[in-house]
Amino acid sequence: QIVHAGRNTKKSVIGQQPMGPSGKRRDPMNFQKPRELKEEEIFEIIRSFGKAAKRAVKAGADGIQLHGAHGYLINQFLSPFLNLRKDTWGGSDENRFRFLKETVIETRKSMPEGMPLLVKMNTNDYTPKIGIVPELAVTYAKWLAELGIDGLEVSCGNGEFSPFNIFRGEVPVNELLLSLPNWKKPLGKLMLKGMAGKFDLGGAYNVEAARMIKPVMGNIPLFVVGGLRKVSQMEDVLSKGYADCISMSRPFIKQPFIVKQFKERKAGEVSCISCNKCVAAVLMDMPVHCYQKGFPSSK
């Protein structure tokens, strides 16, 4: 999975001011504004996606997925909320799609024939003002199908403006506060407590959007992620033709062999409760691990 964070990072991490399609929309948590990318920098980044794919191929990857969801750079170009450009890279749906289109074309050049190229894309950004919504996602999906990608995975949410729409479930307030510097904790506590209880898992939350997108995909496989926790749920989605494949993430952290258990009928659902303490741990540079029972005392 190849991704460029764009504006969705911090200067302390990358050593320079984050960049994005536009220089507006202050990050609500880090209070920073990105620098608008120059056109020559846009072309450089597109070429860099191709170079990254070439390195992945050399390293033995079986396929490539371009991460165009969750508020990262590709998503930023696709989003009417974050892409406020008036040149050929923004201002219309076609122009906002151009960055992803050129990245798909460039990445494909670096891959051997037969290796699958997939895209991950938002169906809803859940940003303060309208970004990508399901109807626009259908348009983008149709254009991706015309480009001949080998699979599309649909997700939702934005890491800066709506993180708990990405990984719904509990909001682990106390654990998340540990990752903040002391000066941010009072505001962080206020914001996080305001989110608590508003993002319960509530079932498979991207399936309805997948159902809208599936008809424009032709024979290209459609993957859906988010809240699918029971085999019966998954079978229902597949049997009704809403999607072709099921994606999971957090359940594998707790149960790496859960698919094998499904196949052998030793389990009918995952044991992950979406407590999201694993997310808080990653923000503290702790190992990817299930922390459902709490963080180690040393932390």
**What string gives the helices and strands in order?**
HEEHEHHEHEHHHEHEHHH
- N-C termini distance: 30 Å
Shape: globular
Sheet with the most strands, sense and barrel status = 5 strands, parallel
The proportion of residues forming helix, as a percent range, comes to 25-40%
The low-confidence parts are: none
> How many DSSP-defined strands?
7
Strand order of the largest sheet: 3-4-5-6-7
As a whole number of angstroms, the C-alpha radius of gyration is 19 Å
What share of the residues does DSSP label as strand, in percent? 5-15%
Please provide a brief summary of the model.
By secondary structure, the chain is α/β, with parallel strands linked by helices.
What does this structure look like?
The chain has 299 residues and is an alpha/beta fold. The chain contains twelve helices and seven strands. A five-stranded parallel sheet has the order 3-4-5-6-7. A two-stranded parallel ribbon has the order 1-2. Helix 2 (39-59) runs parallel beside helix 4 and helix 4 (93-109) packs parallel to helix 5 (134-147). The longest helix has 21 residues, at 39-59. The radius of gyration is 19 Å and the shape is globular. It starts with 10 loop residues before the first helix and ends in a 16-residue tail after the last helix.
